[in-house]
């Protein structure tokens, strides 16, 4: 989930080296210069755009201000390059490229860390617990981007506070690197769809465990929740235990399906068939719809007779021209599945109403569906 290598630089007439840590799997910067509060934002932006990383030695809060200044300059630069797109797909790919450029530029502002994740800068907060949760234990000092640090701190706060889930009447606490269930519309679909059985269900790719918890709260006697991501497995187990559902829900490591058959098998795969640019994007982007295809291909042999597979999928990929409805239905047919029914809902998140979003038209028209599938 991360990349640890050496990064070296010259400082005060000496060559210094430290471990390089990147949660986005970014390679170590080839050029690093030590800077402090005296550097101007324009000069810092120019160096970052040239590929020179800035190792911060000044006041921590001033580093955050500099990052904000770099972000403003990056947005202005990207805005100048925006053009009218010929298609939603072109707009999507241009936005992805812009996001990548923005991440690369802002990732050039680096922070030093001690082996215990302490930050040896003036007015630096105590981020040791947040970094331990996100990065894991370290054996020696290292460098990482300020953006990675702020992401770890933000995730730590989300983990402490949790996300209120109306369908559960409780909070789910996401861990760093595990997709947070902030879009409640698809959770409501799972809470309302007619259950084919109360005996057993499989939740494929459980993430935080939220869907397994909803099924358990609806009265399903036993739920087997699977995932391959160690962070997701730990997160789901913690949430299930916190909700007092450990007797009903078993969280296991598996590549999609656990052994056996079930009368209900549920999956909420990544919705967009595109290549993730970092490990943290794998919950959103699914190259060539690999997880979707794997779920559909194996569903029939794992369903009990008359059982149902529930596929939760947004049509955003269709509206962006990345996958057609005909292609999706072709996957159903190829897997020997038929559609029993479909429950639809519209998005309620803020981005659907953001007219400044380059993908606004697609997001505003988006429909999220729960497809009820059976073997033919």
UniProtKB/TrEMBL annotation:
Q: Which GO terms describe its molecular function?
A: methyltransferase activity
On the tree of life, the source organism's domain of life is Bacteria
Q: Where is the Methyltransferase small domain?
A: 174-274
Kindly indicate whether the keyword Coiled coil belongs to this entry: no
Q: Does the keyword Lipid metabolism apply?
A: no
Which UniProt keywords are present, listed alphabetically?
A: Methyltransferase, S-adenosyl-L-methionine, Transferase
Give the InterPro entries listed for this entry: N5-glutamine_MTase, SAM-dependent_MTases_sf, Small_mtfrase_dom
Biological process per Gene Ontology, one example term: methylation
What PANTHER family does the record point to?
A: HEMK METHYLTRANSFERASE, MTRF1L RELEASE FACTOR GLUTAMINE METHYLTRANSFERASE
Name-wise, this protein is: Class I SAM-dependent methyltransferase
Which species is this UniProt entry from? Geoalkalibacter halelectricus
The organism's taxonomy opens as: Bacteria, Pseudomonadati, Thermodesulfobacteriota, Desulfuromonadia, Desulfuromonadales
């Amino acid at each position: 989930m991360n990349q640890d290598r050496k990064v070296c630089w010259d400082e005060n007439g000496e060559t210094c080296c430290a471990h390089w840590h990147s949660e986005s799997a970014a390679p170590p910067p080839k050029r690093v210069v030590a800077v402090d509060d005296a550097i101007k934002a324009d000069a810092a932006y120019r160096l970052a755009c040239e590929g020179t990383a800035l190792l911060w030695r000044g006041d921590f809060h001033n580093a955050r201000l500099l990052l904000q200044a770099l972000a403003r300059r990056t947005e202005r630069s990207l805005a100048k390059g925006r053009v009218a797109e010929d298609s939603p797909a072109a707009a999507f790919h241009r936005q992805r490229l812009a996001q990548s450029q923005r991440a690369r530029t802002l990732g050039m502002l680096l922070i030093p860390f001690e082996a215990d994740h302490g930050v040896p800068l003036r007015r630096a907060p105590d981020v040791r617990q947040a970094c331990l949760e996100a990065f894991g234990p370290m054996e020696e000092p290292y460098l990482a981007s300020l953006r990675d640090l702020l992401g770890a701190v933000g995730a730590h706060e989300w983990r402490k506070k949790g996300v209120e889930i109306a369908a559960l009447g409780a909070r789910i606490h996401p861990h760093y690197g595990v997709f947070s269930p902030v879009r409640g519309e698809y959770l409501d679909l799972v809470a309302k769809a007619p259950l084919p059985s109360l005996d057993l269900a499989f939740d494929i790719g459980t993430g935080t465990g939220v869907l397994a918890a909803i099924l358990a709260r609806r009265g399903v006697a036993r739920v087997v929740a699977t995932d391959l991501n160690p962070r997701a497995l730990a997160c789901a187990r913690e949430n299930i235990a916190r909700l007092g559902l450990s007797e009903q829900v078993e969280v296991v490591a598996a590549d999609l399906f656990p052994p056996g058959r079930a009368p209900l098998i549920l999956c909420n795969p990544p919705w967009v068939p595109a290549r993730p640019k970092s490990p943290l994007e794998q919950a959103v982007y699914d190259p060539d719809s690999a997880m979707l295809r794997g779920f559909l291909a194996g569903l029939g042999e794992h369903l009990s007779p008359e059982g149902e597979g529930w596929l939760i999928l947004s049509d955003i990929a269709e509206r962006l021209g990345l996958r057609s409805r005909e292609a999706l239905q072709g996957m159903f047919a190829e897997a020997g599945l038929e559609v029993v029914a479909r429950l639809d809902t519209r998005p309620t998140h803020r981005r659907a109403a953001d007219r400044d979003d380059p993908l606004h038209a697609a997001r505003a028209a988006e429909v999220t569906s729960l497809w009820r599938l059976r073997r033919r």
